Amino acid sequence: MEDIYQTQNASAVLRSADCFGIQDVHVIEIRNKYSVNKDVARGAPKWITSHKYINGKDNTADCYKALKDKGYRIVATSPHAKGYTIHNLPVEQKTALVFGTEKFGLSEYAFNNADDYVAIPIYGFTESFNISVTAALFMQHLIGKIRASGVNWQLPEEERLDILLQWAWNSVHKPLLLEKYFKSSLLKS
């Protein structure tokens, strides 16, 4: 998500990501400060991994580099771009979808440095869907398409275990005290 200015929209995207089993969400700040609306997110930030690009000189470029270094193809979402539609976007390669603000869309850098473009066909007169609706539609459609394909989408075992440990850590009240207690108990036995 690049520079989302409405906390309820950014939070709804996080909630949808968790519901659809998306583990990683990258958040880019440019002009707008990112924050989570807990009433909308409903605990989703505990279960997903957020990568934040909020303090750099060029946060979008930093995010793109991090994704490219991990082998991701970057696909910009825009109702104005010539490219794929939600229906024919290939899912065989690791893909990061980039969503911009409702008011301005993606930054020039985000748009011009994407590997591909994708849109949701619009049949009415309104230009586009709300950002949180757009993200949910993409996630629902593409996750179904990926799971139905032969693509190996599962996490490697070591990464899966690291995430399970992080989830357990996030689920326990005062995890540092609990860890200290168990470590001291183990040392005594």
Explain what the structure shows:
- A 4-stranded parallel beta sheet has the order 4-6-3-5. Strands 1-2 form a two-stranded parallel sheet.
- Helices cover about 45% and strands about 15% of the residues.
- The chain has 8 helices and 6 strands.
- It has 2 domains: about 150 residues, SPOUT methyltransferase, trefoil knot domain (Alpha/beta knot, 3-Layer(aba) Sandwich), CATH 3.40.1280.10; about 35 residues.
- The N and C termini lie far apart (about 50 Å).
- Helix 1 runs parallel beside helix 6.
- The model has no long low-confidence stretch (mean pLDDT about 90).
- It is an alpha/beta fold.
User: What kind of sheet is the major sheet?
Assistant: 4 strands, parallel
Please give the alpha-carbon distance between the first and last residues: 49 Å
How many beta-strand runs? Answer: 6
Provide the domain count.
Answer: 2
Strand order of the largest sheet: 4-6-3-5
Total count of helical runs of at least 4 residues: 8
Q: Quick one: overall form?
A: globular
- Find the structural class using helix and strand composition: alpha/beta
